[in-house]
Structure formats: C-alpha cells, structure tokens
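Translate structure to sequence.
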C-alpha cells in the first residue's frame, strides 16, 4: 500500500484533501457551504474528479456519489481509496467533453460538481450545457475555475495558454459576466458567484509547486495550512487581494415557463 493510502487508512477521506495544494482544500470548504449533509439518497456527479477526494467527501456527506475522469490511473486510485474509506462512491472512466454520449447520466443528479475543469476544455459552452443536462429539475451545479483577474502564483499562470486540449489551461480564466453568460445559455439560474483561495493559500502554493521532490514541498507547508482558513477572508476584506478561483452556484429550474396570453403573464408548469 502506498504511503498516501496508508495515511488515508489512518485518518480517513479528509487526508486526501491535504495531498493537493492549499487551493484544493479551499475548494472543498467552498463546496461544503452549498452541499448540505443528506440522508435522502440524493445523487451527486463529480465531473473531472481527479483522484476522487471531492467525490469521497460527498459520499461521506450522504450522497450517492459518482466521479468521472478519463484518467484510468486516477480512477483506480480513487476506487482503492473508496474501498479503504468504506465508501460506496463509484468512479467510471469517461470524457467530460463527451457527456452527451453517456445516457445514464442525463437528468440523473441532484448536484453536479465541476471543479477546476472547464478551463481545460475548448468548447466550454457545450460542457456547460452537458453539465446542466445531467441535473434533475431543481438540481444544483457547483463550479470553480480560475479567476480571470488573478495574480499569477508562479510564472506558468502567466501563460501562454494552450491552443489544444493537451492537459494545460486553454484560457486564463473567467469573469462573473462570462459565467453568467454560460449559465444562461445552458438554462441555469445563477444563485451565487463568489471566490475562493486567497492570499495565504496562494503564497503557500508557491513552495508546494517549486520544492522538489513533491513530498518535500508538501511537508514544508503542512504546519502552515491552517493559516488560510483563519485569515484569508480577513486579508481579502482589508486589502482587496483577488481570489485565485471564481466560483459559481447555479440552479436548474423546476418549472418550464409557458406563455398563456389568455391569463396574462407566463405561468409555471411542472
């Protein structure tokens, strides 16, 4: 068993959230604000699930959780971690760019997560429509992506950005107007556009990325990882320092508006 899986066995799924950079933990805390604990058998679809940390966290909160990724190695890792944690989360292999071909996911979920994924995909309009199609009426999309107006953490964040889908970002990021445009085009109503990952998280990510081997960088910042949780919101209020990620929570309407000229304004029909 790998060292990381041994740590997960000892400390549970939360340990997986610490294996990434501080921005990853920020995203999980943001997701939890809009993902209530459930005992109602609600279903959740994590599109672009990576090694499965968010999918496992959702399963721990009571969701029937499915994590989709094209990477067979990531899916094998996530499946093994689900077994270690005693979670029933499932990790099929699939391509977020081809969601419309996986009929079992259409209209199937109460929540869809898409975290730091859309900036890798050229046809973001299609992706947003496909994510919306996976929701049941009354379902919720929770999305995070780089903030177009971020301050680069390292030089790679300055570009150039890819012209093809080779695993790197194909665009710098998104503004609130861009996210509203995509949501409206997909038939979603915006509940909230906010941000996450402030000053301290970004500064701690620098040594995490630069110190090699990677485990040494992870160890170097570990004692300081509580600081962003305590102080980043305060720093943002005092200085206006931009969050690295912009966040979207959007709702799929339960009712289809129907025109009814005889009775005045449009009314809702289930």
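Result:
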């Amino acid at each position: 068993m790998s060292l990381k899986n041994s740590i997960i066995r000892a400390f549970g799924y939360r340990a997986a959230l610490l294996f990434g950079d501080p921005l990853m933990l920020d995203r999980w805390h943001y997701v939890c604000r809009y993902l209530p604990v459930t005992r109602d058998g609600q279903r959740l679809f994590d599109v672009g699930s990576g090694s499965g940390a968010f999918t496992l966290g959702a399963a721990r909160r009571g969701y029937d959780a499915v994590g989709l990724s094209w990477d067979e190695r990531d899916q094998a890792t996530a499946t093994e971690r689900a077994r270690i944690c005693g979670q029933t989360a499932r990790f099929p292999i699939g391509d977020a760019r081809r969601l419309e071909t996986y009929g079992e996911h259409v209209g199937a979920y109460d929540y869809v997560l898409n975290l730091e994924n859309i900036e890798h995909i050229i046809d973001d309009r299609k992706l947003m429509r496909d994510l919306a199609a996976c929701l049941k009426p009354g379902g919720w999309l929770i999305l995070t992506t780089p903030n177009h107006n971020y301050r680069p953490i390292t030089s790679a964040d300055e570009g150039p950005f890819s012209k093809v889908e080779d695993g790197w970002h194909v665009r710098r990021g998104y503004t609130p107007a861009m996210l509203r445009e995509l949501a409206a085009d997909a038939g979603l109503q915006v509940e909230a556009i906010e941000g996450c990952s402030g000053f301290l998280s970004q500064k701690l990510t620098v040594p995490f990325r630069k110190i090699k081997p990677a485990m040494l960088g992870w160890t170097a910042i570990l004692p300081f990882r509580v600081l962003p949780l305590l102080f980043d919101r305060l720093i943002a209020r005092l200085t206006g320092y931009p969050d690295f990620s912009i966040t979207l929570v959007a709702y799929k309407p339960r009712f289809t508006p129907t025109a009814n000229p005889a009775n005045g304004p449009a009314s809702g029909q289930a």
